[in-house]
Design a protein that fits this description.
The structure holds 2 protein chains of 2 kinds. Chain A is of the alpha/beta class. Helix content of chain A is 33%, strand content 29%. The longest helix of chain A has 17 residues. Chain B has 13 helices and 4 strands. By secondary structure, chain B is mainly α. Chain B folds into 2 domains: 230 residues, no CATH class; 103 residues, 3-Layer(aba) Sandwich (abc type-2 transporter like fold). The radius of gyration of chain B is 29 Å and the shape is elongated. In chain B, 65% of the residues lie in helices and 6% in strands. Classes of the chains: A alpha/beta, B mainly alpha. Chains A and B meet through helix 3 of A and helix 1 and helix 8 of B.
C-alpha cells in the first residue's frame, strides 16, 4: 500500500526566517498522523506546502501519487482542508456554505444536509453562519472539509478552544474518516487528543521533526513510569512514596512500600506526550 | 480557468450581495434617489435676462425693447429700490439700469447723458457689455437718430451654435449620475473582496480545484455586471437612452469594467469598510473630475483629458445632449477602452499578488 502523503526534505523560509527545515513525512491511507509542536514550529507552513498554498524552497511532495505543485488542481480535487481560522462565509447559511464548496469541486449531487447531520448542525442548516457559536462554526468547517469525500484530510487545530461536546463530535468524525480510509494529517496543541486520535505522532520544533513514532512507543522509549503509594503507619502517620518503574529493583521497592503500612492509595503514573516533547525539545508546547 | 468554477463563485458573490443589507439598502436608495433628484431638476434653460430699470417717460421705448427675445425689463421706482432688488433674490435680476429723469431734455440740448449700470459682483463681464449696449440702444431710440457710425455687426458664433439649444442642468447631471452609480457598486465589490481577504475565505477557496484566475475572473464578472446593471437601470429611469442607446450601453459596460478594476485594488488593500472607503475615494475622486467638468463646461483644465473617466463622461455628454454617433465618439470610446484594460489589468495583478501573499 503506497502512502497517500509523501513529503521529502521539505524546506521553506519567510525571508531569512527558516520556517521548515528538512521535514520528511509519510501518511498511509486510513492513518492519522498527529503533528505536534508549539506555535511557530512550522506545522501550518508544512500544511500550506502540502495543500498547494505555498511552494517549497526545496524538497518534494507527492499526494495520492501526484507531485505537488505540478498537479495541484488534480490533488486539490481529492483533498479536504480544515483551517485553524474560521474562514467561513458569515452572511451565508451553513447549507449555502457547503453547497458553494461542493460547486467548486464540480459536485452537484452532494447531500449537504447529511453532512450537516454528521456534525450535528442539521437543525441550523438555514441559519446564517454569523449566528453560529464558535463550536458550531468549527463543526461546519469540518463538514466543509468533507464535502468532496476526500482521500486526504488536513486538519489544522480542529478542536482548538472548543467546548467538550463540539470537540468530541469532531473527534468522532475524524475517527470515522480514518476508518473510511482517508489519510489524515492532524495538527494540534492538545496532547491528549493527539494521543487518543493519532496512529503516529510527529514532534516538530523550529522547523524540524524531532521524533516520529506511535504515541505508545514514544512514551515507553522516552518517558518515565512510576507508582505513587500512600500508606498509613502504626502511629496513624501517612507516608507517600514514588517509585520509578524503570529501575532493576523497582519490583522490590514497590513490595516494600506496600508492606510499610496500610495501603491507602496506589496510583500508576505514565509519561505523557508532553513529557516526551519536553524530553526532545527541552521545553513544553505552551512555552 | 474553469467556467463552471467561475460561475459557482459568481453565484456565491451574488448571494453575498443579496445577504448584505447595507449594500441592499444603498443600492435601493440609489435607484430611488438619483432619478428623483434628476427629475426634480429643471429640464429647460431660462435664457432671458431680467434687467431692472428706473426710468421716467421711457415706457414706449422700453415696451418696444421688451418685445425682443432674451430681455425682460422690470420697471422699478427709484435707484434704492433697484439696489435692494439686485441684492435680494425675489425678482431674480441680473443687473439694473438707471436712466436720468432729464434724459429727454439733455438729449434735446445735445448734452451728455449719464446712464448708471448696476450689476452684482457675480455678473460676468460679457453680460456687462451687453447691458451697456442695451443702454446705448435705449438712448438712441429716445433720440430718434442713428449714430454717426454703425458699429453693429452680425455675430459670428464659433463651433456649434447652441443658442436656443442649451443643455439643461438635468442633462448635464446625467454623466455624473451614471458615474456615481458605478462608484457605489465599486464600494460594494471592494468591500466584498476585502472581506474575502481579511476573513481568509479566499484561502479556503484556493485549496479546492478553484484557481486564482477563477477567483479573479469571478470578481471581475460580478463587479462589472452589478455595476453595469445598476447604471443601466438608473439611465433607464432618468430617460438616458433616448438617443444613442447602443453607444451608451457600450460606454456603461466599459465604465463598469473600469471601476471594477478600481474595486479590486481597493479591496486588495482594504481591511474594513472604512479603509475600503478611503482607498476607493483615493481613486474615485480624480475619476469624478471629468463628470464635474461636464456640469460646468469650459472650467476643466486640459490635463482632465488624461483622466481615465474622461472618455466615459465625454461619450455620455455628446451622445445624450448632442445626439453624437459612433464616428463622433470613437476617439473617446477608444480612450475609455484603453483605460479600462489598464485599470482592469492593474486590479487583477494587484489583487492576485495580495492573494498570493496570504
Amino acid at each position: 500500500m503506497s502512502a497517500s502523503i509523501v513529503a521529502t526534505d521539505l524546506t521553506y523560509a519567510y525571508g531569512d526566517q527558516i520556517a521548515v527545515d528538512g521535514i520528511s513525512v509519510a501518511v498511509d491511507p486510513g492513518e492519522v498522523l498527529g503533528f505536534l509542536g508549539p506555535n511557530g514550529a512550522g506545522k501550518s507552513t508544512t500544511i500550506k506546502m502540502l495543500t498547494g498554498q505555498l511552494s517549497p524552497r526545496s524538497g518534494t511532495i507527492e499526494v495520492l501519487g501526484m507531485p505537488m505543485p505540478a498537479q495541484r488542481t488534480a490533488i486539490q480535487q481529492r483533498i479536504g482542508v480544515c483551517f485553524e481560522e474560521k474562514n467561513l462565509y458569515l452572511t451565508m447559511t451553513g447549507l449555502e456554505n457547503l453547497r458553494f464548496f461542493a460547486g467548486l469541486f464540480g459536485l452537484r449531487d452532494v447531500d449537504s444536509r447529511a453532512l450537516l447531520e454528521r456534525v450535528d448542525l442539521a437543525d441550523r442548516a438555514k441559519d446564517r453562519v454569523s449566528q453560529y457559536s464558535k463550536g458550531m462554526r468549527q463543526r461546519l468547517m469540518m463538514a466543509r472539509a468533507l464535502v468532496n469525500s476526500p482521500d486526504v484530510l488536513f486538519l489544522d487545530e480542529p478542536t482548538d478552544g472548543l467546548d467538550p461536546v463540539s470537540a468530541r463530535s469532531i473527534r468522532e468524525v475524524i475517527r470515522q474518516e480514518a476508518r473510511r480510509g482517508a489519510a489524515i494529517l492532524l495538527t494540534t496543541h492538545d496532547m491528549m487528543e493527539a494521543d487518543t486520535l493519532s496512529d503516529r505522532v510527529a514532534f516538530i520544533n523550529e522547523g524540524q521533526i524531532l521524533a516520529l513514532d506511535t504515541p505508545e512507543r514514544l512514551k515507553l522509549a522516552h518517558g518515565s513510569r512510576s507508582v505513587r503509594i500512600r500508606t498509613r503507619g502504626p502511629a496513624d502517620e501517612v507516608a507517600e512514596r514514588v517509585i520509578a518503574l524503570d529501575g532493576a529493583d523497582s519490583d522490590d521497592a514497590v513490595g516494600e512500600a506496600m508492606r510499610a503500612g496500610d495501603v491507602l492509595t496506589i496510583h500508576t503514573e505514565e509519561a505523557t506526550l508532553e513529557d516526551v516533547f519536553v524530553h526532545f525539545a527541552g521545553r513544553g508546547l505552551q512555552s | 480557468m474553469t467556467p463552471g468554477v467561475v460561475s459557482t463563485i459568481v453565484r456565491k458573490d451574488l448571494t453575498e450581495f443579496r445577504a448584505d443589507r447595507f449594500f441592499l439598502v444603498i443600492t435601493a436608495l440609489s435607484v430611488v434617489f438619483y432619478p428623483l433628484v434628476y427629475w426634480l431638476l429643471p429640464s429647460t434653460v431660462d435664457e432671458t435676462l431680467r434687467v431692472g430699470v428706473v426710468q421716467n417717460g421711457l415706457d414706449p421705448v422700453l415696451d418696444a425693447l421688451q418685445e425682443s427675445d432674451g430681455i425682460e425689463l422690470v420697471v422699478l421706482d427709484d435707484e434704492d429700490e433697484l439696489t435692494d432688488a439686485l441684492l435680494g433674490s425675489e425678482l431674480d435680476l441680473v443687473a439694473g439700469l438707471v436712466f436720468p429723469d432729464d434724459l429727454l431734455a439733455a438729449a434735446a440740448a445735445d448734452e451728455p447723458v449719464q446712464v448708471t449700470l448696476l450689476v452684482t459682483a457675480d455678473v460676468p463681464p460679457d453680460i456687462e457689455s451687453a447691458l451697456e449696449a442695451l443702454a446705448s440702444e435705449v438712448v438712441l431710440q429716445v433720440l430718434g437718430e442713428p449714430p454717426p457710425t454703425q458699429l453693429l455687426s452680425e455675430p459670428v458664433v464659433l463651433g456649434d451654435d447652441q443658442v436656443g439649444e442649451q443643455v439643461s442642468l438635468r442633462e448635464q447631471l446625467r454623466p455624473l449620475m451614471a458615474f456615481f452609480v458605478l462608484m457605489t457598486e465599486t464600494f460594494a465589490l471592494a468591500t466584498l473582496v476585502a472581506g474575502e481577504i481579511q476573513s481568509r475565505t479566499v484561502t479556503a477557496v484556493l485549496v479546492t480545484p478553484a484557481t486564482r484566475a477563477d477567483f479573479l475572473a469571478a470578481k471581475g464578472v460580478v463587479g462589472t455586471s452589478v455595476a453595469f446593471a445598476e447604471a443601466t437601470l438608473i439611465m433607464l429611469l432618468i430617460g438616458g437612452f433616448a438617443t444613442g442607446a447602443p453607444i451608451l450601453l457600450v460606454t456603461l459596460l466599459l465604465g463598469a469594467a473600469l471601476v471594477t478594476g478600481v474595486g479590486m485594488v481597493a479591496g486588495a488593500y482594504g481591511k474594513d469598510f472604512m479603509t475600503v472607503l478611503f482607498t476607493s475615494m483615493l481613486f474615485l475622486v480624480p475619476l469624478m473630475i471629468p463628470a464635474f467638468g461636464a456640469l460646468f463646461p469650459g472650467t476643466a483644465a486640459p490635463w482632465v483629458r488624461a483622466l481615465p473617466s474622461y472618455g466615459f463622461v465625454q461619450t455620455v455628454v455628446e451622445v445624450s445632449t448632442q445626439n453624437a454617433g459612433w464616428t463622433e465618439v470613437a476617439g473617446y470610446l477608444a480612450l475609455l477602452l484603453g483605460w479600462t484594460i489598464a485599470a482592469f489589468a492593474t486590479g487583477w495583478l494587484i489583487l492576485g499578488r495580495r492573494m498570493a501573499r496570504l
